[in-house]
Fold:
Amino acid sequence: MTNFDGNEKKSPRVEIDLEKIHGNTKRLKDFFDQRGISMMCVTKGVLGSPPIARAMVEAGVKLLADSRIENLKRIRDAGIDASLVLIRTPSMGKVKDVVKYADISVNSEISVIERLSLEAGNQKKIHGIILMVDLGDLREGILPRDLGQTLLKIMPLTGVKILGIGTNLGCIGGVLPDQAKMNQLSSIARDLEQRFNIRFDIVSGGNSANYNWVKSAGDIGRINNLRIGEMIFTGRETVDYARVEFLETNTISLAAQVIEVKEKESLPRGTITTDAFGAVPNFADRGTITRAIVEIGRQDVLISGLTPVGDMEILGASSDHIVIDLKKMHVQTGDEIRFHMDYGAMLSAMTSPYIEKIYLNSPHVLEQQF
Structure:
């Protein structure tokens, strides 16, 4: 078995199709551009991969965003020409690196912004600030009633510049980013701009969960930015996970070798207790079946986010093994089984040091060490 560059295939591995990622990024950028919305491409699901970040920038994106400063450093060190945004409120201990590697950060705590101001002065920089507003999802954010007071405290600070406001929905609380919520954010933006005689460059309405709203909205109000990651990689919107018709799916896939194939009973023998992860297993009686064991497990990837390619089914997994009912599929030891991954599985596989990352279909394919 050989991979795209003629070398022996490594297993397990994720194969990253840069051409598909570039295409999805370009099509989404065009879609949002037509509605007056810029796109921040989020790289947190792919560990800030420079080849992926470069493919996004080559598709015309100007803003790259990540929740980990280590990932932004990786992108910065690769010399990729984009403005970098930290989309998790900075911790006090990382303020110095935030100013060094991120051009912009989202914030909700005045004490952190004050520290960013001091550090930006030390580094002779102006650091951009997006104030996050909590509209009910109950993750990070300033309550709307406290925004005016917060702005009054920030405006005299040197070294930082308020670029705009943003919100996060469809996350911890699962709150839908619908027209009512976007109208609320637009109203807040207009009110603050009028009260303080300012103009926000960025009013960021959310993430991939906002796609359906953008598609149907008659009036986007002051919303002019979204933070998009998952849709680029999965080709699906994230409210009901329907496929977006103009996007490629499975831009990143997982392959792993089979290390055992045997016919065995479908039901365990003996007294059943908890499994290795503290749960009581429950197996259906399928009689004698052909079972394959694959060389990855829960230590490598989120099993619930995997779908085997072909007519087969995952029966269970331990730390190091996935057990699959092969049904009528002909598979032997040494063969590979390929898996489609949802966003959670992709994120875990990309951050696993035990899984190789292979880049496909780009003139700018680069080796990236994880």
